[in-house]
Amino acid sequence: MKIFVIVPSKSYWYLNYLLSSLREQIIRPYVVILVIKNCGIKAVKNACSSYTVPCLIAKQDRGSLTTGCNISKREAKGIIIILFTDDVIAPKG
């Protein structure tokens, strides 16, 4: 089962908590799609490389949260698509 997690983000500060919680899931995401705006790609790549969760990073140059969601939905081709914000910690399970 392919589970895609979509995360629009303006900051990488909370991504470590989110990625850590996704790594602990019984059924792990196939890929986490991070749509970043106004933050450094290098810092986001470093956060992603610290965890065993596969990440795809897309840059958002303009627009709102909805624009970020639409960018990521184009990449998500899974059976289940979950939308998180960057400050969410997924519950255990």
Report on the structure:
This protein has helices at 15-23, 41-49, 65-75, and strands spanning 3-9, 31-36, 55-59, 80-83. The protein has 3 helices and 4 strands, in the order E-H-E-H-E-H-E. With 93 residues, the chain is an alpha/beta fold. Strand 2 (31-36), helix 2 and strand 3 (55-59) form a beta-alpha-beta unit. The protein has a 4-stranded parallel sheet with strand order 3-2-1-4, sandwiched between helices.
What is the average per-residue confidence, as pLDDT, rounded to a whole number?
83
N- to C-terminal separation? 16 Å
**What oligomeric state do the depicted chains represent?**
single chain
Rounded radius of gyration (Å) = 12 Å
For the sheet with most strands, the description reads: 4 strands, parallel
- Please indicate the percent range of residues in DSSP E strands (runs of 2 or more): 15-25%
Secondary structure class reads alpha/beta
Report helical residue fraction: 25-40%
User: Tally the helices: what do you get?
Assistant: 3
Uncertain residue ranges? none
Basic shape: globular
Physical arrangement of strands within the biggest beta sheet: 3-2-1-4
Number of E-type strands: 4
Output the helix-strand order.
EHEHEHE
